[in-house]
Amino acid sequence: MHIIHRHTDYEALIQGTVEIIPTDQKDGLQARLQADRPLIIKFGADPTAPDLHLGHAVVLSKLRQFQDAGHTVVFLIGDFTARIGDPSGKSKTRPPLSPTEITENSATYLAQVGKILDIKQCVIRYNSEWLGSLSSSEWVQLCGQVTVARIIEREDFAQRLAQHTPIGFHELLYPLMQGYDSVALHADVELGGTDQTFNLLMGRFLQEQYGQRPQIVMTLPLLEGLNGHHKMSKSLGNIIGLTEPAHQAFGKLMSISDDLMWHYYTVLLWKSREEINIFQQAITDRTMHPMELKKQMAHAIIAKFWGTGKAEAAQHTFEQLFQKHDYSHAQIIPLPATMHNPVWIVDLLKYLAIVTTSSEARRLIEGGGVSIDEVKITDPTTKITLQSGMLIKAGKHSFYRIA
C-alpha cells in the first residue's frame, strides 16, 4: 500500500499521547514517517485475563489510526512472557498462568481486538516464537546487555526492595524479554500505557545493542475506572468491558462523576483542552447541563466502540428507564432454568453478568447497589425466590425484568 505522508498525519497520530521518545526531529516520529515503507508498529499484550475493557481501547484506538494510515500493526501475544506476568505496578510476584489459560485467553483477546482493529490487516505474532527457542548462550548474551542497577531503577522494583518484599529473579527478566521482542520484530514504533514506559525504553536500548535503529516510544494515558480512584482494572471491578451489552456500558458511563467525565472526554474521545474549556464554560453559564454533556460523551463512546445504531438504542433505553422511569424498557431475562429457588443473590448477580466474582457481588450489595422490586438488598447472604415480572436493579444504571 502506498502511503502519502502529510503533516496532518503526524498531528493526528500524536493526538492524545502523553509522551513520544525521542523528541528530536532528526530521528523522531515525524522523521520516521518520511520513510518510503510502512512502519512496523508494535503492541504487546500478555493474555493474563480473558476480557478487554475501555482501558485497553485507549491504545487500540491509536493502533487503528496507524493502521488506517497504511502502517503495519503487529499485535504481539505475550504467550511466553505471560508465564511470568508483567510485574509493572505489582507489589508481589504474580502467579504463573497455565498453558491452557494462556491459549484460551489469547483466542478471546483476538476476538475482542477485532472490535477496534482490522484484525485481517494485523500481523499476529507470539513471543514464544523466539523467546522459547533462545539457547543458553543467547540468554546469557541478552542478560549481559543490561546491569542489575538499571533493572532495579524501575519504580515498582525499587519500592519492593525498600519494603523488603521478595522479587523473583524471573521478574527481573521480564523487561528484557519485552525489549527483546522489539529486536525480534525490528519494531519502528511501540505503543503502551504510561505504566509501560520502562519496558518500552528497554526495547529502544536493546535494539541499539543489537545494531538496530531504536524504536520510537509512544505512551498513552491510563483510563481511570468508574470510581475515579484507580486505573480501570478487572481485579478492582471498575471496568466497562468491550463485550458488555451497549445499554449496560452506556449506563455505567452515565454513572461516573462529573469530574471524571472530562478525563473520559480527553482519553477516549481525544477532546482538546480548549474543547473541554468550552464545555466547562457552558456549564458555568448554565447553557448546558452536566447530564446532557455526559449523555453526549456516553453516546460518542458507545458509537465509537459498539456502533452508532447501538449508541442510539442505548441512549433511548437510558432515557426511558432513568429519566421517565419506564421500566418496560428493562432488559428481559428468562427465569434461570439451572437455578433452584430460592437463589443466592450473589449467584443471581453472576448469572446476570453484572459481576464476575463473588467478592465483586458482595461489594455491590453491601454498598446498597442492589434492589429487588425497588427494595434494597444489603445482606450478601440473602436468598431470593425468583418470580416472573420481578424487577432487579444492580448498580446505578442496570435494570432487569424476569420473564
Itemize the secondary structure elements and their pairings.
Blueprint: H1 7-14, E1 19-21, H2 29-32, E2 40-45, H3 54-68, E3 72-77, H4 99-113, E4 123-126, H5 128-131, H6 136-143, H7 148-151, H8 155-162, H9 169-172, H10 174-185, E5 189-193, H11 197-209, E6 216-220, H12 246-255, H13 258-269, H14 273-284, H15 290-305, H16 308-323, E7 331-333, E8 343-344, H17 345-351, H18 358-366, E9 370-372, E10 375-376, E11 383-384, E12 391-394, E13 399-402
Parallel strand pairs: 2-3, 2-5, 3-4, 5-6, 7-13
Antiparallel strand pairs: 1-6, 8-11, 9-10, 9-12, 12-13
Helix pairs in contact: 10-11, 12-15, 12-16, 13-15, 15-16
Summary?
With 403 residues, the protein is α/β, with parallel strands linked by helices.
Which descriptors apply to this entry?
single chain, 403 residues, alpha/beta, Rossmann fold, Tyrosyl-Transfer RNA Synthetase, Structural Genomics Hypothetical 15.5 Kd Protein In mrcA-pckA Intergenic Region, Chain A, 3 domains, 6-stranded mixed sheet, 13 strands, 44% helix, 12% strand, globular
* Mean residue pLDDT: 87
Principal-axis shape equals: globular
**Beta strand %:** 5-15%
Radius of gyration: 23 Å
Number of DSSP E strands: 13
Number of domains: 3
The CATH class assignment of the largest domain is Alpha Beta
Helix share, percent:
40-55%
C-alpha end-to-end distance? 53 Å
